[in-house]
Amino acid sequence: NLRASYPEIPQGLTVKVKCNSLPRLFGQRLQRRLMRITEANSWWREGCVTVLQEDDTVRGFARVGYHRRESELCVENYGPSILLEDILYASRQCFRGFPTVTIEEVWILAGGTPLFVGGSQTSSTPDYDGGRAQEVRDILYRIGVIGEPERAEEAKGAEEAKGQLGSPPDLSPEIKFLWRKMHDDSITRSDLQRVALLALQELCMLGVKDFQRQKLEALWVLHSQANSSKVLASPLRPRYGMQWKLDKSMSVEVDSVHDLCSAHTSLNEVTRLLLETLRIRIPDQGHYRGVYWRSPLKAICQAVEETTEDNYGQIFDSGFFSGVWVHQEDRGAYQVDAVKTTLEESLQKLHYDINRRFDDLSADVREVHLGLEEDSTRLVNMVMTLLDASHKSGTLPPKLVLVHPARTSPTFSPETWFTGEVHISFLCAVTLEPGLDRQGRPVKFTIRQPSDFLLRLFPYVKFGLLVVQTALLSGRLLGYPVPEISQLYDGFTEAAVVAGAMADLVGALEQVCQSDDEAQPSFDYTALLEGGRGFPKDEVETLRAHCEENFAIVEGLMDGIDPQWQQHCGLEWCVADDGTSAWVRKEVSQAFRELGRDLLRDPKLLVERGTVLRRAHTAEDDAGCGCVIL
Hints:
By secondary structure, the chain is α+β, with helices and mostly antiparallel strands. 40% of the residues lie in helices and 16% in strands. The longest helix has 30 residues, at 328-357.
């Protein structure tokens, strides 16, 4: 449809990538990475369509297809090559954490004619038209086949005419890639902002290790006022969908400007060109003086460092910009938009599956579906009702659980969340808060060696993370349910930030479960929620059987921890007057018996009834209760 609607957009290059294998959930991970440029309703089981827009005008589009069994990725691009490069960059990010995944061969074609065929062992590209040769090198760099895209001989003269860097060897490949894009007259400002944001971490780290540059998560720029010799340092603020700026409100006065090394000189030139190309104004019509490196005065270094720490944070949403540092006021714009897009796509796919695939489910499921579009919290209720259709016994564990590290680190790190000793806490189906013991402390069960536990209970743990993420986005939760975690990480008090963190934890969980090549994790029944996978009518019972099998494993592990875990988990099994059953906290049990399904749909009914919830103690050294397994 896009090709028919925009015939004036020329066909670009097609790239096919053959790997030795693809991660099990490569498709879902790639779609999350591309969520900002993925066309609505364009996902299918093994692909999606991406669109490049500028001021609501379509400038390019691409078809992204992947085949896990054949371990192949194919991207057909129409329009600017920057879209193709962004897709390949996102694909490379999805390979991180999987050291055994290697690229065996890459085909780059123009209208069916091969321009390049080779792999990671290929050291150079054919010598043909300079512009196209550089495009091929950039593609190979973006997919990670070559470490640094060298400039074609034909392009060197043009770059030197525009101001070639004095010491290009000082710069990293990512900064050199940004440098070339800044000299590309066809690239738009929004495209360049996207490239610059991905290179920002490299710009901040250049010279830190070898040339005593102060390590900061923001790029501080030196400038002087028009009628003053005073030199100020102000951080660069990338802003989503807006003009970038140097934030004068956080300026720090510095003593002088020094060019400490050739790397500093090169970085000054890159930043100067970036400010000019993106039209970033110098405050008070001042003059650009270079990039802040390090002050000889300890007080200035401390002021710059503290200002950065107080105002900048990482983007956590598993999307295209995940891991990039931006100002805390701008972080929400990057994260909320991306997570909202993911939720909308999940709702659309879930809507389709219910209509087309689950005609034989109970009337309860269809009843919940009728109001699905009205309130995103119904997504939580639908999945819970689906599982309740098969599990009606109080001997089985609660449907919702959170896993968190027993020994927390000073900073939030999804990659290490599941690698050490962990705690598991069961959540109330109504409040989505953990069960409490008699002293009001969250109940926690400890697992010392979680690798086998996570592998066997992968969908169970993932399901809890997804439900909490959805509840945060719908406004049902204000922060991370486990108090000591919220207390440790300030960002976990903001619902949008926590929702992004939940997405990162899902990715980290998938990586842990895929790291063992010989063992296979349990069947992922959450694929219905996340990946849009539908089950034919005759396979619904198979789906239910997988759910029952997984919950039986949970029951067996809990019996091994504590034969009386039902009495000690801080929740109680309740059956409402309307037949709905769930594990809930004691103080809401009476309300649940009377209201049943209505309370699951709208927990605010607790307020109308005047139900008072116990608040958990938040002391970090609270040990909680529970036993140790393994």
